TrEMBL record:
Organism (species): Vitreoscilla filiformis
Keywords: ATP-binding, Kinase, Nucleotide-binding, Transferase
Name of the protein in question: Tyrosine kinase
GO CC aspect terms: plasma membrane
Top-level taxon of origin: Bacteria
Length: 289
């Protein structure tokens, strides 16, 4: 079974049409859609209003579609104003962008020396170390080369990548891992032809169990087969074992340390945990952003 369905829309058109949202919520049949379109033509109504009037959906389902439309409108506006942390887009010729290109070169050299690519988990000891900042910009630097890049937000506790990349979080990784619908979980990052992202989606109550599920391992394998590079954002190690489990699933990891914030002992403990999990540690990056 395919776990990652790719986006049908161009990156310049973030968000889903009202009919597509209604279909995701209610899974209507072609016959029902024919009735909805006839009702819309006769009464000049929205898809969810027509479906509600025909008795095909419940009032709460219509409200859910309307709420999702408002969120998509928000992301459409946000996509036109890149987040300040996305320096590869806001300052493509600046010193930070050049620093990410240097990290990219070291990473690609490491991949060639190891004789094969695996998903790369980005880990750090504590919150606010800059994992999402680093993930988004390293992924964008890789997307500037030939090849497709997939960025997966596996921080099921405090997700942030959808904010940095200005993509919708109405559905995502948590839906796939929980066995719910997983259409369009892969989204095109605005402004980047070769960069795709899987946001967290709804924040789940059981993040550790979802990360340890066999479905997550299958998803990473599928992503590695279909994309040239796969980067995975993780929670801070201070929040639990999610990051180590994710890194073990990926097979390789890169440690981010915030300048002047992380203790040497915490970095040593993290490095030791990765080694015990037989994770190939690509390196350590000192973040002063």
């Amino acid at each position: 079974m395919v776990l990652l369905s790719e986006p049908e829309r161009d990156a310049a058109e973030p968000g889903l049409a009202a009919e597509a949202l209604l279909q995701e919520v209610c899974a209507l049949s072609p016959t029902q859609w024919a009735h909805i379109r006839q009702h819309r033509q006769a009464h000049d109504s929205t898809p969810e209003a027509a479906a509600l009037a025909l008795g095909l959906i419940r009032p709460e389902e219509a409200l859910q579609v309307q709420a999702w439309q408002q969120r998509h409108a928000h992301w459409q506006v946000a996509a036109q104003r890149p987040h300040a942390d996305w320096v590869m887009r806001t300052q493509p010729q600046g010193p930070q962008a050049e620093a990410f290109r240097r990290v990219r070169s070291h990473y690609l050299l490491h991949v060639r020396q190891r004789g094969g690519r695996r998903p790369l988990a980005v880990v750090s000891p504590d919150v606010q170390d800059g994992r999402s900042f680093f993930c988004a910009n390293l992924a964008a630097s890789l997307a500037q080369l030939d090849g497709r890049v997939l960025l997966i937000d596996a921080n099921l506790r405090r997700p942030r990548l959808h904010e940095v990349l200005a993509v919708s979080d109405h559905t995502g990784l948590s839906d796939v891992l929980a066995g719910r619908h997983h259409r369009r979980v892969v989204q095109a990052a605005p402004g980047w032809a070769q960069l795709f992202v899987v946001p967290v989606g709804p924040t789940p109550p059981n993040p550790a169990e979802l990360i340890e599920s066999p479905t997550f391992a299958r998803l990473l394998q599928e992503a590695n087969e279909r994309f040239d590079h796969v980067l995975v954002d993780t929670p801070a190690c201070a929040m639990g074992m999610d990051a180590i489990v994710t890194a073990a699933r990926c097979g390789s990891a890169l440690i981010v340390s915030r300048c002047g914030a992380n203790k040497t002992s915490d970095l040593q403990d993290l490095s030791a945990a990765l080694k015990a999990a037989q994770v190939d540690t690509v390196g350590v990056v000192l973040n002063d952003h």
